Amino acid sequence: MIKISTMKKYFAILPLILLMACSGNTNKVVDPKDSVAKTENTSTVVQPTFKDQKVAAIYANYLQLKDALVATKDAEAKAAAKELIPELKSYTGCENTAIIAEQISNAKDIVAQRKEFTALSKDIIALFKNADLTSGTVYVQHCPMANNGDGGDWLASEKKIQNPYYGKDMLECGAVVAEIKAK
To answer: Range of 141's domain?
Structure first.
């Protein structure tokens, strides 16, 4: 039988193990099967282009929002979400997604913004999986630890992981789970 004091030691170590799961050397290149994708900082980002300019505007504003969340700048995230709202409202089928963007713009803090970003990203990813991409690649990325272990997805223009759910706390936690390419 395990003593209670021994169990307490195990429970004290568990958070450290979880915290270290997504941290490490930033210049390490790992196997693509690894759940934490890390790349060298030498890659160049090629922004994707879209046939529909409304879709391009949605993507650009979405990236501004994602980048503000990565940087843990709630005021910038609010501003980016406000810019995204009219773009989504004017695109047929994205009216409800505009409501989510509005919730992000009105959120009281970064934690609430990140929670709403999950729903926003789900809708935006569905839009871009059907978008007419003329060049470049859009990467669908996933953090399994986001949202209390439920996970969370987002879009990026590069394979390098920049986690909007944790910012600098777990910047590289995640992996590319899909690529949307020009047809």
So the answer is: 28-181
pLDDT of residue 29: 37
CA distance 176 to 155: 9
pLDDT at position 19, please? 36
Place of tokens 């669908």: 140
CA distance 105 to 100: 9
Residue 9 in any domain: the answer is no
Number of domains in the chain: 1
Tell me if 23 is assigned to some domain.
no
* Amino acid, single-letter form, for residue 75: A
- Quick check: 26 pLDDT over 80? no
More confident residue, 7 or 157: 157
Angle between helix 110-129 and 53-70 (nearest 10): 150
Q: Is residue 59 part of a domain?
A: yes
pLDDT at position 47: 85
